[in-house]
Amino acid sequence: MKKLRKIVADIQNLTDPDQLQSLLWQLICYSPKIPSRLHQQKLLDESEIIPLKVYDQYFSKSDLNVNCFKWGNGSVKILLCHGWGSKGSDFSEIISMLRTNENFEIWSFDAPGNGSSEGEISNLFLYAASIKQLFEHIGTTPEVMIGHSLGGMANALALQQIKSYPQLLISIAPLVNLKDNFIASMNSVNTANEAQTLFFEDFERLFDQKTEDFLLNKIYDFSDQLKHLLLYDTNDLVSPSSDIEGFLKENPEIRAAAYQDTSHSKLLTDHRVLQEIDLFIQQELSSGK
């Protein structure tokens, strides 16, 4: 968090406007690395660690080492994708719950620029590339995929790109509108509209894609291919419920559960959320539908 605070302070104290765009890229693409807590580290110590490589074509122009973690050797494979400024071990409560089932093989990873993996800055495409690299390593599409926040959007992007789908998809407070998220970050440091417009022009040139395309509604075009559970908080400040409910309106076949007294990050540890996930997986996998 110290580096992020410095980026914010540098933007707010900026006297040379020519430096602003470089700092905005850091503001948007730098993901704070928060150390694992004791119980999270214990969970990692009990995992099998598999390093994979993901090529970063946008920033470093190099292969990045991505640390992946595996628990169990069951026939049902489950992949978890964390959110921005997060790491694989932030799913610790969910992973511990899943480990009670000996039929499960559970995978998580630290996306580039997050947790223990390499990379100074990151982006949605590096998340999706990590997911696809794990698919290749595992040798199949996992039966269950779980994503939180940006990880929910990354799961959808990876599935859209490879056209291979799990039986079950679980999204926990997924980001729906990435551009609005960027705007909120820049507004928080009082970035002028002109500077924001320039940033988005540079962004679209780098990624060769319109920022308006970074909508979950556009990425998620395979609703008839799987069973999907979406869990969210109605007072979430990171992934607004209005965005999620708009997405659900366009995809009424998704099973959804809303909470009012948790938060964007605490959804990962809320006992009701864990019960909902456990019930969904057990019922849907056993039904064979």
Automatic annotation (TrEMBL):
Domain AB hydrolase-1: residue ranges: 78-232
Pfam families attached to this UniProt entry: Abhydrolase_1 (PF00561)
PANTHER family: ALPHA/BETA-HYDROLASES SUPERFAMILY PROTEIN
Name the record gives this protein: Pimeloyl-ACP methyl ester carboxylesterase
Protein species of origin: Pedobacter caeni
